[in-house]
């Protein structure tokens, strides 16, 4: 297990933040499609005259595992709520307490950091804000914010991805 945190793990409060995103369902074999959506979202907001106010992110609703489909949104925080269209959705990052850590290094090694953050939160007695709908586990706030990535740093060893998992509301007190 080679997780590398450049920050955390810890608990942080985050304010509610509007964003725009493109929803997608993909398997791990199709994963390259997700990264290609970041420039599309950034182009969409530029054409609308809307300003990005944070790092691009993936918001996971359902985790697919090795063979299943992941349901996620590829998005970017924006300065104010806007109206989406038939391709782009407008929503907001929920405000509240998050279990947070910053993974440093290649995204191919991200799985170990995700597991380490989950183990840490559980060892602290924290509960994630998620629910079950029949057989599907649905996360209300599971994010990867791409703070430093291929857009501004060619060396994957220097990339930084903030992992942020929303905690149950009663954990915020």
Structural features, described:
The protein is an alpha+beta fold. It has one domain: Alpha-Beta Barrel (Multidrug-efflux Transporter 1 Regulator Bmrr, Chain A), CATH 3.20.80. Helices cover about 20% and strands about 40% of the residues. The chain has 2 helices and 10 strands. It has helices at about 30-50, 110-125, and strands at about 5-15, 15-25, 55-60, 70-75, 90-95, 95-105, 130-135, 135-140, 140-150, 160-165. The protein has an 8-stranded antiparallel beta sheet with strand order 1-6-10-9-3-4-2-5. Strand 3 and strand 4 (about 70-75) form a beta hairpin. The longest helix is centred in the N-terminal third of the chain and has 17 residues, at about 30-50. It is globular, with a radius of gyration of 16 Å. The N and C termini lie far apart (about 35 Å). This is GyrI-like domain-containing protein. InterPro entries: AraC_E-bd, GyrI-like, Reg_factor_effector_dom_sf. It comes from Planococcus chinensis. It holds the Pfam family GyrI-like.
Features:
single chain; 173 residues; alpha+beta; Multidrug-efflux Transporter 1 Regulator Bmrr, Chain A; eight-stranded antiparallel β-sheet; two-stranded antiparallel ribbon; 2 helices; 10 strands; globular; GyrI-like; GyrI-like domain-containing protein; AraC_E-bd; Reg_factor_effector_dom_sf
């Amino acid at each position: 297990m080679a997780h590398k945190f450049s920050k955390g793990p810890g608990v942080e409060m985050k304010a509610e933040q509007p964003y725009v995103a493109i929803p997608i369902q993909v398997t791990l074999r199709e994963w390259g499609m997700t990264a290609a959506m970041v420039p599309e979202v950034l182009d969409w907001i530029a054409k609308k005259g809307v300003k990005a106010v944070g790092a691009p992110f993936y918001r996971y609703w359902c985790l697919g595992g090795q063979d299943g489909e992941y349901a996620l949104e590829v998005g970017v925080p924006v300065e104010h709520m806007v109206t989406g269209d038939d391709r782009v959705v407008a929503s907001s990052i929920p405000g509240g307490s998050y279990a947070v850590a910053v993974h440093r290094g290649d995204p191919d090694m991200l799985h170990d950091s995700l597991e380490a953050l989950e183990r840490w939160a559980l060892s602290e007695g924290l509960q994630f804000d998620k629910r079950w709908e029949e057989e599907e586990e649905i996360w209300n706030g599971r994010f990867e914010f791409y703070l430093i990535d291929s857009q501004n740093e060619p060396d994957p060893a220097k990339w930084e991805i903030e992992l942020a998992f929303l905690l149950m509301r009663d954990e915020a007190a």
